[in-house]
Design brief:
CATH architecture of the largest domain: Up-down Bundle
CATH topology of the largest domain: Four Helix Bundle (Hemerythrin (Met), subunit A)
Shape: globular
Strand content: 5-15%
Distance between the termini: 33 Å
Number of strands: 7
Structural class: alpha+beta
Order of helices and strands: HHHHHEEHHHEEEEHEH
Number of helices: 10
Helix content: 40-55%
Oligomer: single chain
Number of domains: 2
Radius of gyration: 20 Å
Length: 278
């Protein structure tokens, strides 16, 4: 059952199939992991490849009404836990800490099967309904786009840890990365502190290539084209942008892979403050 997507901002007929495809892509990736490879450290503090899968299980379990498990440690005391969402994630990671990788994969498949069934019964009205999401009150459809983003980004995390290549571009990447690109004005204005009157162009090459123009007039906003020449330009590969925005790598460490023009102090400040994820 699908219902009509109509003019919804979060159309079920686009988001649902890409989310289900993302689940399957992750399954195929995880199916090739054996033995100690499950314990490979990732760019996420304190998390191995297996821990990422535990986190994915936890979020999808939440969406079918399964409460987070009780664990014997104070997850709030962990250095990388900064908020309640982080604490929730860590409960599931700790819960599966002593479980074999193959068994965690089985649990992942079980919860995905449940999610596939529940998503298949939904309509556009369900996607348009209010929902609590990781970014606050929104709609269920927005939450599902965030799920595409989260799962896709974790696919890249696992590939990066294992030294393999993931889906850097394509429909799932385009849909998921919309969450990142939507945050660019906030990152530029609030975190990067671009001054009033700034005109900034961010040029991305690679699989998610695009040109983003922003002007700061009271607040930073994306514009179709700049009213006057750019005061600062930033050029980098889209893969690096994704990892910077996701907090996987540090802008300070990656400046040699970025080309800055114009006001390089503003450009550098933006690059060093691109991270926006929880």
């Amino acid at each position: 059952m699908s219902g009509s997507s109509g003019t919804s901002e979060f159309p079920i007929d686009i988001i649902r199939p890409l989310l289900l495809e993302q689940f399957e892509v992750l399954d195929a990736l995880l199916s090739g992991i054996e033995g100690d490879a499950w314990f490979t450290p990732t760019d996420l503090p304190g998390w191995t490849v297996k821990d990422i899968v535990a986190h994915l299980i936890g979020t999808e379990s939440l969406l079918v009404g399964v409460a987070a498990p009780h664990v014997d440690i104070d997850v709030h005391a962990l250095g990388h836990v900064r908020n309640e969402i982080g604490a929730f994630n860590e409960q599931w990671v700790e819960h599966f800490r002593g479980v074999a990788g193959a068994d965690v994969l089985t649990r992942y498949r079980d919860i995905v099967a449940q999610r596939r069934e529940s998503l298949g019964a939904m309509t556009q009205a369900d996607f348009d309904a209010p929902a609590d999401t990781p970014i606050g009150p929104a709609t269920y459809g927005r939450f599902m786009r965030i799920r595409v983003f989260d799962c896709w980004l974790h696919e890249l995390d696992i590939h990066d840890a294992l030294g393999t290549v993931g889906s850097e571009g394509g429909p799932r990447a385009e849909l998921g990365s919309a969450e990142m690109f939507g945050a660019v004005p906030f990152v530029v204005g609030k975190r990067g502190k671009a001054p009033e009157g700034s005109r900034i162009t961010i040029e991305l090459t690679g699989p998610l290539a695009r040109t983003i123009h922003l002007e700061v007039a009271g607040r930073a906003r994306v514009v179709p084209s700049l009213s006057e020449p750019a005061t600062a330009t930033i050029t980098m590969d889209s893969g690096l942008f994704v990892r910077l925005a996701g907090g996987r790598v540090s802008g300070v460490d990656k400046l040699d892979e970025v080309t800055l023009g114009g006001d390089t102090a503003v450009g550098r400040r933006i690059v060093e403050n691109l991270a926006f994820t929880i």
